[in-house]
Structures are given as structure tokens and as C-alpha cells.
Amino acid sequence: MSHSSNAAEAWYPESNPSNSQEEIHIDLLPPASLNQALWKRLSGNLRDTFAPEKFPPLQLTSRPLDLGVPLGERLRTPWFRTVFTNIGDVISPEALPPLELESVPVDVGEIISDQLSHLWLSSLLRNLADRFVPERLPKLDLLSKPMDNIVPNTWMLLPPWSDVLTTSKVFYPDKPTTPTPSVTISRASTSLPSAPFVPTRPPVEAGLMRDLRRSRVRGYVWMGVAAAQVIYLAVSIIRP
To answer: Distance (Å, rounded) from C-alpha 43 to C-alpha 140?
Structure first.
């Protein structure tokens, strides 16, 4: 089946549907390098490592864009370097160039993050101002007509019978049950030797003291780590 129109066939008479189908060749076989011997692949990897192929310089037709550190490099970075980087960004943030906007900005009001970062006093004053002096908004333009009769006249709304009755609830007394004679069996009282009272430590208190000791040890460890980070940051700032 040919995908070209009659006009295209008139312009290119040499294009034949049978020839075009014969020229299409789809190779679904794996690459030939997959069937190479182990020593050939090893030697090729060593050659690419020590004597890599030299390519011509890359010619860019578009303006390069600095994306910062790639995501793979960030994931391979040790955790202590990320901690130091975060502390450095807080103390001495990087001065970035002004942002170049190519679109027209739209006023969306105050961002939610800015609203949450305000003090409670400013939000209280704003709420009081909205309560006593509300903002006058323009009239709403409705494109649809309101429905006058939501419930049709042919419907009959009947309340449940429990809402109509106003009498109080009556609770009938329970039927008396015949008492069963109780039989008491006397047991011989055996006097046990009184053991001396030894106060024992409750298990809850022991577990609580153990948790407190562990929390103190963890606090000392984290304080030491924080002190080491601050010292390292100070040394790196003084002696870059």
C-alpha cells in the first residue's frame, strides 16, 4: 500500500511501491559486540580507558544552559558533604544573576508559603480587617440561568414518623427473676508463713531510665557531630 498521493507519484515516477517495500529492512538482532569473546571485550575496554578515541570539538548551535550538579552526582555525594553544603548555603548563599523572564508575569496574589511564614499578629489583623471592612469584589457574571424550582411540584416530601411523634419514651421494668439459693462452701483456713516484704523496682521505671540514658548518649553524639561540622566550616571559610 502506497502512502503517497497521485500528485506525488506524478512528480516522482521512479518511486515504486514494490521497490520501497523491498528497501525497508528492520534489523531486530542483537549487536555484533554481544557475541564477541571475553578477551576481545576486555581489551577493548582497556583501550577505551587508557587511550580513548579523540572526537572533534562539539559545535553547539544553541546557547548552553547551566543545570548545576547532575542528579547522579548528587546521589553519589556522601552525606557529610551535603550537610556542609547546606550549612554553607545558609550562612553565605550563592549570588545568582538576575532572572530573565520571557513571558508576561501574572499577578496571582500572595503565595501560600508567604502566608504561612507571616507572624500570627499579621494574620490576626488581616482577619479582623476582612471581618469589619471586607473587600468589595465586582459583580459575578453568571453564564447559566438559575433554576427556580429545584424540587418539582409533583413531588411529596413526607417526614419520617419518628420526627412527627413528640411523646416521651417509655421503658418497661424488667421482669423479676426467681432468686437461686446460694450455697457456700467453707474452706479450711491455712496460715501461710509471712515472707519479708522486699520492695522491687517496677519494670516501667526501669525501662524509662534506660530510655533516658540512651537519649542522653544520642544527644552527646549529635552535639559532637554538630560541633565538628561548625569547626570544619569555620576552617574552610578562614583557609579556603
So the answer is: 76
Please state, in angstroms and rounded to a whole number, the distance separating the CA atoms of residues 125 and 132: 11
pLDDT at 2 over 50: no
Alpha-carbon Rg for the chain, nearest whole angstrom, is 43
Neighbour-count burial for 129-151, b at 16+ CB within 10 Å, e otherwise: eeeeeeeeeeeeeeeeeeeeeee
Does residue 240 contact residue 88 with C-beta atoms inside 8 Å?
Answer: no
pLDDT in tens, 31-73: 877 788 888 888 888 998 898 888 888 887 888 777 777 888 8
Q: Quick one: 73 exposed, middle or buried, by C-beta within 10 A (0-12, 13-18, 19+)?
A: exposed
For 112-150, how does the pLDDT look when each residue is reduced to its tens digit (9 = 90+)? Answer: 777 777 788 888 888 888 889 888 888 888 788 777 777
CA 216 – CA 47 distance, rounded (Å)? 56
pTM value? 0.20
